[in-house]
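ok, trying the design again with the full structure, not the truncated one.
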């Protein structure tokens, strides 16, 4: 049995506060994991949900919804944007975006056409031509990918040719580059086996497994705080003195 010497009040208070803090963070991460599970299920079900006209959805779309929409309009030809350093099936490539003028609207919709791998020489892939004229597109109306670190500032104004390459997607910067106003979300086109683009969409969010890993980490910190308290306040056994001969 471990015997403890009497701790100071501040040591007890500090330990209890630390354990409560770490446990609270762990529980919060578990709640976030459950929410992300719900989000993934919602994303999967809306991909096969009935189509809704874009003009009925866009003005009041909620933050964590992914409406399956149908939108009329035409592409702005020759103005593709490439999101570099993307991975799919262990292949390096780019994600291709194209501006789409929505019929009857004064804003432009950025369309995610899908993923294309780079060539074996790491060159940019050849882009299939965009559909011309008035067309109908269907897909998920989702948030644009998070930019992460915007290293080097806006790369678009310094590029003269097309397509333009970037390591992040910013609707504001693309809008300034084209002189157009964009809708606040992007359209993830429905999969089409007849095109070269790979379209396997997942929400742009941290996966539930990572939240659970963080929860385990915080709970481990709570146990470590208790262990440190015990080690620092453990009563050391007294040494037995040998009788003098």
């Amino acid at each position: 049995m471990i015997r403890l010497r009497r701790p100071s009040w501040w040591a007890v208070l500090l330990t209890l506060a630390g354990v409560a803090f770490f446990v609270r963070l762990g529980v919060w991460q578990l709640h976030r994991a459950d929410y992300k599970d719900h989000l993934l299920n919602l994303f999967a079900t809306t991909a096969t949900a009935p189509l809704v006209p874009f003009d009925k959805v866009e003005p009041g779309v909620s933050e964590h919804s992914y409406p399956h929409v149908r939108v009329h309009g035409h592409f702005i030809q020759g103005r593709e944007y490439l999101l570099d350093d993307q991975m799919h099936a262990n292949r390096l490539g780019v994600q291709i975006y194209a501006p789409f003028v929505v019929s009857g609207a004064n804003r432009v919709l950025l369309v995610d056409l899908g993923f294309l791998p780079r060539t074996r020489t790491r060159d940019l892939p050849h882009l299939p031509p965009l559909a011309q004229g008035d067309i109908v597109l269907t897909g998920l109306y989702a948030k644009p990918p998070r930019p992460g670190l915007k290293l080097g500032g806006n790369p678009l104004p310094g590029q003269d040719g097309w397509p333009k390459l970037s390591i992040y997607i910013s609707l504001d910067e693309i809008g300034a580059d084209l002189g157009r106003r964009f809708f606040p979300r992007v359209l993830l086109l429905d999969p089409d086996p007849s095109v070269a683009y790979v379209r396997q969409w997942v929400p742009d969010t941290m996966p539930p497994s990572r939240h659970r890993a963080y929860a385990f980490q915080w709970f481990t910190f709570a146990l470590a705080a208790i262990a440190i308290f015990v080690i620092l306040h453990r009563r050391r056994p007294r040494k037995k003195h040998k009788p003098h001969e």
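Keeping the full-length input from now on. The helical segments are 9-46, 54-57, 171-178, 208-233.
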